[in-house]
Design goal:
The N and C termini lie close together (10 Å). This protein has 2 domains: 39-156, Vaccinia Virus protein VP39 (Rossmann fold, 3-Layer(aba) Sandwich); 173-265, DNA Methylase, Chain A, domain 2. The strands form 4 sheets. The chain has a 4-stranded mixed beta sheet, with helices on one face. The chain has a two-stranded parallel sheet with strand order 1-2. The model is unreliable at 267-271 (pLDDT under 50). Helix 4 (85-95) links the parallel strand 3 and strand 4 (99-104). It has helices at 2-7, 20-29, 45-49, 85-95, 111-126, 173-177, 201-207, 223-231; strands spanning 14-17, 34-37, 58-61, 99-104, 129-137, 145-146, 148-156, 188-193, 212-217, 264-265. The radius of gyration is 21 Å and the shape is globular. The chain contains 8 helices and 10 strands. It is an alpha/beta fold and 271 residues long.
């Protein structure tokens, strides 16, 4: 969200991240933002955020969501991680921004019969914020990926803005990656020049302000994995594999070939 807000003219003055490696990547991409690395449950919130009280237009963020995620076992109400959103609420209460935007996995709004949704509604309403919330899919806004997220928009002392209306333009996988060089298992470089001109408006946008291609590296697959992949024709998946080659996975897209004219499947739940 930070990049999107910066592209719309906002200055992101402060960020908090628990993971040092993610924080370092954030610093590279947001050089003018002060990064506070650490567990928000251990931070002195007054010391960290107090100086910004009444000076901030928008707070944006996504509390940890492991307990709500479809990845692995969900414990919902019995998982203390599912109540970390209250620290986000505390920061909003302390800073008193005009608006806030909170994102998380869709289960946040439906878990335990809507318990967490109602809890969030009650807490923010008590602070004078009106809310609009729902589930958005990135593919409805020009991104070639199925990524559904719960989004909550709040505004202090008046009606919150509506959730954005889906755009008309559909971007598929091939619109996004047809300009990338074909690589075999284990090939690629972390930084390289593009070998072709952009072939779509999406590719032109992705290259804007960047003359190089980064992270175009293929996983070095095992011999057995390559054998399995060779058995799967275009536009097919694990349903064609012999029983002895089937593997257990929580991801329904495992061993599925890319479908060029569709959007990418996504099962990750934390940015």
């Amino acid at each position: 969200m930070s990049l999107g807000f910066e592209q719309e003219g906002f200055d992101v003055v402060l960020a908090n991240e628990y993971d040092e490696s993610i924080a370092n990547a954030y610093r590279v991409n947001h050089k003018n933002t002060k990064m506070v690395v650490g567990d928000i449950t251990q931070l002195d919130l007054e010391k960290t955020f107090g100086d910004f009280q009444g000076k901030i237009d928008v707070i944006i963020g996504g509390p940890p969501c492991q307990g709500f995620s479809q990845k692995g076992q969900r414990k919902t109400i019995h998982d203390e991680r599912n109540f970390l959103f209250k620290y986000y609420v505390k920061v909003v209460e302390l800073v008193k921004p005009r608006y806030f935007v909170m994102e998380n996995v869709p289960n946040l709004l439906t878990a335990e019969g809507g318990f967490f949704r109602q809890e969030i509604q009650t807490l923010f309403n008590s602070m004078g914020y009106q809310l609009n919330m729902g589930v958005l899919n990135a593919s409805d806004y020009g991104v070639p990926q199925n990524r559904r997220r719960a989004v909550i928009i709040g505004k202090r002392d008046s009606e919150a803005p509506q959730l954005p209306v889906p755009c008309i333009k559909f971007v598929n996988i091939w619109d996004a990656i047809s300009d990338l060089a074909y690589l075999n298992s284990g090939e690629g470089e972390e930084e390289q020049a593009y070998s072709t001109d952009p072939e779509s408006d999406y590719q032109k946008e992705m290259r804007r302000d960047s003359g190089k291609l980064f992270n175009h590296v293929v996983t070095k697959h095992s011999k057995l994995a390559l054998e399995r992949l060779a058995m799967i024709p275009p536009n097919a998946g694990k349903e064609v594999l012999p029983k002895e080659h089937l593997t257990k996975s929580i991801y329904s897209g495992t061993w599925t070939r890319m479908r060029k004219d569709e959007i990418s499947v996504n099962y990750n739940h934390k940015i």
